[in-house]
User: Fold these one by one.
Assistant:
Number 1:
Amino acid sequence: MVRSVAKVFMSGRSLAVRILRSSWFDVPEVFIVRKGDFVVLTPRRARTWSRFFGECACPDFALDRKASQRGQKRDVFNSRYMLDTDIASYVIRGTDNDLNRRIVAHAGCLCMRSITHHELLCGARMKGSPRLEATIAALEDLVPVVEFSSAAADRAAAIRASLDLAGKTIGVMDALIAASTITEGFTLVTNNTSHFSRIGGLALANWRTAK
């Protein structure tokens, strides 16, 4: 890695950096990730799935959910499938070709919940990986993030209470994701179908195993 010095200055009300020609980007936008005193800039190129899997995927990413317990951007109102955190992590790895093909085939019909955004970002920051944070941002450029609603909160409370009383407890994050999927009338894409099948009224799909 070659280190160079760049001039920092004010441009209107914004702070700007004059980057040397040797480090110029060939894109109009970049992702910015700050880690302590380090600021990492990566090109915002992932406007197609082929670019995402070719340039952004992180094959070694594995999410520790116990520790951690966004051209082709789409309108959430066109969505029909919600990716859970587990499936989103497989998409980030980009190593499951069958899953990748199904993701591309359903482009424009996908979304994630803000809960999943939280879990992915938490995992990346615990690993101290600016590159992984940039990959998550690239994914969310293709898969809209839906905010968690009060209606989903009410449904999640009912789900958790019902399962706890029946001795079939699931994680808090899973209950929140399931509840928001039901309230939106979507299908949850997950690799944990046996886990989520405890929840009545939740439509499920597993694109890692379906033929």
Number 2:
Amino acid sequence: MQNDNGNIIENEEDLDKSEAQNAPVSDLNEEDDPVIEPEVVKVKRNALGQLAKGQVLNPNGRPAGAINMTSKLKNALSIVGEGRHASADLEIVDKVLELAKQGDKAMIQLIWNYVDGKPIQRIDHTSLGEGVQALSDEQMEKLNNTFSKESNETDE
């Protein structure tokens, strides 16, 4: 027996399956493939919109004892593979040092950043290196009044 596409079918049950697979989309009923609606969960929140005590959005959550990717990577790096003399993490350190000795600027920078810590960027946001003076209470009040007037004008 053959189906419409010329494929050999051994029994009628396979023929029915074959025809269903090759049926045009318009021939399919909505009953054949029901849409599953997501469950809407109502949660209690406080006045700030934060979850109330005892409310959980993901009750299943991460299973207890699940290992995150960082831990998996650390474990994999610490394993000494067959035919190796050191673990992968030590081999990476050796490679970084080797590249730095060869003059690789990125590796030199990497070592500096991890050994001494990345230097703090100090940017002078004032003009001509002069320090910033704190505003007096009077100046602050004047600024607040100016901005509140502008705000009221744009609301109208």
Number 3:
Amino acid sequence: MPRYALITDGVVTNVAVGDADWAVAVGAVRSDEAQIGWAYAGGVFTSPPEPEPEPPPVPSTIPMRQLVLGLLSYGKSDDAQALAARTIPPGFQPVIDQMPTEQQVVATLTIQTMTEADRASPLIDLAAAVYGWDEAEIDGFFRAAGAL
């Protein structure tokens, strides 16, 4: 028996096997390939587009090396600053400079002693504010830097 597609508002809502009389009675269109969810227009069945792939997960932490490389690749530092950085990653000094004086020492000591950057750290949120980044841009930075 032939295979038919049942169509509602230009979309295949079901497929069934039946005879020609049944197909005419229910308004089904013959197709050996159409699947539920396919579009139907002008006598042509079209499969839906492939869904966008999910972005990779946002790493919860990235090593300091990758933080520095990420700042470099995002234009928040230059090569000379990156190579000279031993305690404060290039691109982070402007973040510290915008903090109240009493918080600058704590932030400097925190950054000097950390071995990885934590996505949940308030320092990352502060850096994002200085750079004008929203949550999606911070996540994008962590994904990109985590892949370096």
